[in-house]
């Protein structure tokens, strides 16, 4: 429908050894492009005929290889805070409470009090 064959059709056409360009609509060919933009695109002189200026040539900056592993995840901005997953709840702003002694400000792994003994009765 678009005038360009799909990848499956392209593989079948090339497998049979047929000319692929005969299956493409004329509006996608180079001649149609040149006819369309003939009035807008003008030829450019070769670099030997360009006017020289007093400024140095523009060169790209030197490539600096990063010294660390590249980051896989993108950095989130302030706009992304609203689009966060609503299922996950953040622990930010919550008070840490020890499950061993019930104290505030540390977890069970950092508790200095002896660990509670849990008795399990098997019947």
TrEMBL record:
Q: Which GO terms describe its molecular function?
A: nucleic acid binding; zinc ion binding
Q: Where is this region: Disordered?
A: 61-86
Fetch the InterPro entries from UniProt.
Znf_CCHC_sf
- Comp. bias regions, Basic residues: 65-76
Annotated protein name in UniProt: CCHC-type domain-containing protein
Write down the species: Arachis hypogaea
């Amino acid at each position: 429908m678009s005038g360009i064959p799909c990848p499956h059709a392209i593989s079948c056409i090339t497998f049979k050894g047929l000319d692929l360009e005969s299956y493409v609509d004329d509006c996608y060919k180079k001649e149609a492009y040149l006819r369309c933009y003939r009035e807008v695109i003008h030829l450019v002189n070769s670099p030997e005929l360009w006017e020289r200026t007093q400024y140095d040539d523009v060169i790209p900056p030197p490539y600096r290889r990063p010294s660390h592993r590249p980051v896989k995840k993108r950095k989130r901005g302030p706009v992304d805070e609203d689009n966060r997953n609503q299922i996950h709840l953040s622990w930010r702003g919550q008070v840490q409470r020890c499950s061993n002694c019930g104290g505030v400000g540390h977890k069970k792994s950092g508790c200095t009090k002896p660990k509670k003994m849990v008795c399990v009765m098997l019947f």
